[in-house]
Amino acid sequence: MIALEVKELRKSFGGLYVTRRVNLAVAAGERRLIIGPNGAGKTTLFNLVTGEITPDSGSISLFGETITRTPVRERAHRGMARTYQIITLFGRDTLRRNVMLALLGLSKRRWNPFIAFERQRDLVDKAEAALAMVGLAHLADRPLAETSYGERRRVEIAMALAQKPRVLLLDEPFAGLSIDERQDVHKLLMAVPRDVTMVMIEHNMDVALEFAEKITLLNFGEVIVEGTRAEVVADPRTREVYLGH
Ligand SMILES: Nc1ncnc2c1ncn2[C@@H]1O[C@H](COP(=O)(O)OP(=O)(O)OP(=O)(O)O)[C@@H](O)[C@H]1O
């Protein structure tokens, strides 16, 4: 079963192709790593997959259903989640509330002002369960601004996992973390159940390589090497465009 399929995807900005005929098929449960030099088009590919930008041509499907023109929110309802940068979180709010807000953002129901936020029991439970999954249950009452960079990264992952995604896109989850924090996030990602397919963009090869089952190498908006971890690492083109950087 293919979880995420991209066919002949193209996108240009001001006449420059940033995504050129990209094809990608990620199997259900797979852990895929996307690598490539700066400007290769990795984030643009994620933006196309989540629907934040629209392709010029080509198609995207999620578990066999075409979503090429489906709005972002609807894709999220169908099981697509993405980790966002910390900037989008609320510093003065507690970790619990931040995760609850993420869940509310996805919820079809409207925010009910007559029920105190903390009394929305199901939301509280889901938020706490998500924080427990990333080992932060004990910090649920702490304002986000008082947490470390590594803890915040785990909150981002908790927010995405709380949505019970079928496909999770991780955009540089190890960026800016210390070696110890990288190991924590790595352990956490390795523990995510197989019913979540994960696609990761990452530059930190030490931890990312361990995570990857298959690797796709992008360069100038094109897939130039793809295969198992061993195949891609051994491929001279990988060394040429990426590992030599
Ligand atoms: N909205 C946009 N308008 C114009 N050009 C854009 C836009 N978004 C991205 N680009 C350009 O597309 C190219 C690819 O960018 P993208 O962010 O996808 O690369 P990347 O592989 O994620 O790079 P990095 O590793 O540096 O994050 C870059 O040259 C970038 O300047």
UniProtKB/TrEMBL annotation:
Residues 4-245 form the ABC transporter domain. GO terms for molecular function: ATP binding; ATP hydrolysis activity; L-isoleucine transmembrane transporter activity; L-phenylalanine transmembrane transporter activity; L-valine transmembrane transporter activity. It holds the Pfam family ABC_tran. Transmembrane segments: none annotated. It comes from the Bacteria. Keywords: ATP-binding, Nucleotide-binding, Transport. GO terms for biological process: D-alanine transmembrane transport; L-alanine transport; L-isoleucine import across plasma membrane; L-valine import across plasma membrane. The keyword Nucleotide-binding applies. GO terms for cellular component: plasma membrane. CDD domains: ABC_Mj1267_LivG_branched. PANTHER family: AMINO ACID ABC TRANSPORTER ATP-BINDING PROTEIN, CONSERVED COMPONENT OF ABC TRANSPORTER FOR NATURAL AMINO ACIDS-RELATED. This is ABC transporter ATP-binding protein. The lineage of its organism: Bacteria, Pseudomonadati, Pseudomonadota, Alphaproteobacteria, Hyphomicrobiales.
